[in-house]
Amino acid sequence: MTVIQQIITVLIAGAATILTRFLPFAAFRHGAPRYIRYLGDVLPGAVFGLLVVYCVKDVDVMGGYHGAPEAIGILITALSYLWRRNMLTSILAGTLSYMVLVNLVFV
Predict the structure, then answer these.
(1) 1, 13, 23, 74: least CB-packed within 10 angstroms?
(2) In degrees rounded to 5, what are phi and psi of residue 67?
(3) Which alpha helices (DSSP H) does 57-102 contain, by range?
(4) What angle do CA 13, 18, 21 make, to 5 degrees?
């Protein structure tokens, strides 16, 4: 891929990202329908659950550390969410704790 093609690709990807971020605000300028508000309430939790399933799908509980780093990371994520009620903070806390456990503790 040439430099021009790379620049065009990045510009198109950026435009598509901006469009998908701003289009809902333009479409629902006068208020979103009830089912859209409902999806806005339930989808973050569903995506969070999907992330948990994806992260533990390849854990071998019969070998190695028996999934201890993953279990501790999930526990820290859940507890920090219950404590602060902030999904971004809880994801960050769980990810950081998992990375510390895997790279420094369970080596």
Answers:
(1) 1
(2) 75, 15
(3) 68-84, 87-100
(4) 125
Contact yes or no for 91/63 (Cβ under 8 A): no
DSSP 107: -
Do the Cβ atoms of 87 and 48 come closer than 8 Å? yes
Whether the Cβ atoms of residue 70 and residue 94 lie closer than 8 Å to each other: no
> Please, are residues 55 and 69 in contact by the beta-carbon 8 Å criterion?
no
Element (H, E) at 86: none
Task: Name the amino acid, one letter, at 31.
Answer: G
CA atoms within 13 A on the CB side of 65: 12
DSSP-based three-state secondary structure for 102? helix
Is 0.85 topped by the overall pTM? no
Q: How far apart are CA 99 and CA 72, in angstroms?
A: 11
pLDDT in tens, 52-104: 899 899 998 888 889 999 999 999 999 999 999 998 999 899 999 999 999 99
